[in-house]
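Field notebook, page 248. I keep forgetting to write these up properly, so this time I am using the form the group agreed on. The chain and the ligand, S-adenosylmethionine, are recorded exactly as supplied. Prediction of the bound pose follows.
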Amino acid sequence: MSNELIFGFHSVEAIFESEPERFIEIYALKGRDDKRLSPIIEEARKFGISVQFMQRKALDNKSKGEQHQGIIANVIAAPTFNEKDLDEIIAREETPFLLVLDGITDPHNLGACLRSADAAGVHAIIVPKDKSAKLNGTARKVACGAAETVPLIQVTNLARTLREIKDAGVWVVGTAGETDTHVFDANLTGPMAIVMGAEGEGMRRLTREHCDVLVKIPMAGTVSSLNVSVATGICLFEVLRQRNATQA
Ligand SMILES: C[S@@+](CC[C@H](N)C(=O)[O-])C[C@H]1O[C@@H](n2cnc3c(N)ncnc32)[C@H](O)[C@@H]1O
């Protein structure tokens, strides 16, 4: 059984909400009188989890450079998800809603995408095993608890996975600034995987070739592209808007 450190209030609170049994120990900043810390300490007492109070320097050493807001928890490592879990999710959900991140390497962007994905009701995020930011403390903290709620599925061969989800009836929608179809004009109401490209290069050629359609977010200013997590938020919420509109 492996363990991992998680950092910051959102991550700790999210685990208390969903899986308190994963806590091994909590480390909190000594002398901190904080409205947000007291409920955590109370919860920890309730579940019999030990809380160690530490000086800032000791917490900084423990976090090895990750921002921690004065709270770190040692927890049983989260389960990892693979292709088999993806098959189950697609079979289970009436209208699967997936997000594919093709080689996003910045943990801040991964965390922000996770947060938006949770908010938009995405069932799973698919990433290539080799070419992605790891779900480290930074990504978890930026995700504000969404790292615990949205399965992050690591696949060995993204092109093959895209072929398989297409065979299962999921429409694969790639995003790129230089295409013709506006995301707001595409029909995004069916089983859907929205594919986002990497920070520098965008989608890889093979990924792009597996998309059923490419859409762009229209831009009115002078910059050539949006930050990938911003673009992710816009596309996911357009899917949600269209789905809600058809249900109304
Ligand atoms: C910073 S952009 C990459 C820019 C890269 N030079 C390119 O040509 O794609 C990272 C990702 O954000 C998404 N993105 C950014 N701006 C977009 C736009 N205007 N329309 C659609 N997707 C966009 C795409 O998924 C893109 O691959």
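OBSERVATIONS:
- The radius of gyration is 20 Å.
- The beta strands are 3-7, 23-29, 50-54, 71-76, 97-102, 124-128, 152-155, 171-175, 192-197, 213-215.
FOLLOW-UP: compare against the apo run.
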